[in-house]
Amino acid sequence: MNKCEQIGAQELLSMLNDVELMSVKDTVTKSMMPADSRSEAIDACLKCSQSAMQLLRRKKVRRDILMQYLARKSIPVVAGTDKVRLIKQIIDFWNTGSQAVATNSSQAISLPS
Questions:
Q1: DSSP per residue, 8-54
Q2: Are 25 and 45 contacting, i.e. CB atoms less than 8 angstroms apart?
Q3: What DSSP state is assigned to residue 55?
Q4: Residues 45-87 pLDDT 10s
Q5: Does the global pTM surpass 0.90?
Q6: Could you give the CA distance from residue 108 to residue 20 in angstroms, rounded to a whole number?
Q7: Spatial distance between the Cα atoms of 88 and 91, rounded to a whole number of angstroms
Q8: Where are the domains of the chain?
Q9: Residues with Cβ within 8 Å of residue 29, at least 6 apart in sequence
Q10: How far apart are CA 1 and CA 52, in angstroms?
């Protein structure tokens, strides 16, 4: 994961409740890294994930959490969008910043600076 993806993933993981976050941490780290706090759990997830896609595809990172994240970032989402497309949209947002926001997998809207 690049730095932008790590920052975005950290923010998104912070939206999970404690049980969900610890479950994701245990899955990603294969229960090999103990965590005493939410920040330690998030750090462990980031260190042990090979990619943002791999991390966000975890079962505990639910579609509704992804939708909430996109809504907080004022990124429009078409109702009924599947989880994989939401993940791609989020990763595109992280990698392009606020300059271009992907509205679907094939089209990007450039915002004025």
A1: HHHHHHTTS-HHHHHHHHHHHHTT-S--SSHHHHHHHHHHH-S-HHH
A2: yes
A3: H
A4: 999 999 999 999 999 999 999 999 999 999 999 889 999 999 9
A5: no
A6: 32
A7: 5
A8: 3-110
A9: 44, 45, 48
A10: 6
